[in-house]
Amino acid sequence: MIKRITGTIYKSIGNTLLMAGIILFLVSVDLNPHHQKTAPPLNQTHQQNQAAVISEESLSKSDEFLPASGRLIIPSLELELEIGYGVSDEDLKQGPGFYPQSGHPDTGNVCIAGHLNAYGNPFLNLSKMQPDDEIELDYNGRIYKYQVQKVFIVDEYDWSVIDPVGEPVITLTTCHPLYPVNGKYDRLIVRGVQTSVTTKD
Q: What is the pTM of this model?
């Protein structure tokens, strides 16, 4: 009888410890940021943007990213667009805009968002771009030229594409596909590497 009671007690303790372990595991998974599909607010500066190859202190005033407009030219799409600043709904109603997290074109990852199928469809044909296509950015008195490296798709919550990458690049983003299943959009990315910089006369 004593052995039966002792066995029951040990079994109860074992089950309790097992349940506690399962609960701790589930809580740790839930708190792990890699398991949470949340995007950083677009109106906050990316903290990783501070860790560029050239530190912010080493940039002259003229090399800081300014909340100014620019001009984007994509010859293969016969596209020429004014680029504003900001990527909120109100900003993008006016046309494509620089992300507030954008790096400066001289040193970092300059990032631009635009609508696929609304407000003039400025990035409607972005998916047709191919590696080696040229992208030109007119910004703050300089002409920056880029060569497309790749065109790819990421999840709508994947904001790593606007992080610094260690070299001057351009990143264009828009929704994908044109007609989403169940209203679920992904994000189309065009990434180009800088090939030249010239100062306008």
A: 0.69
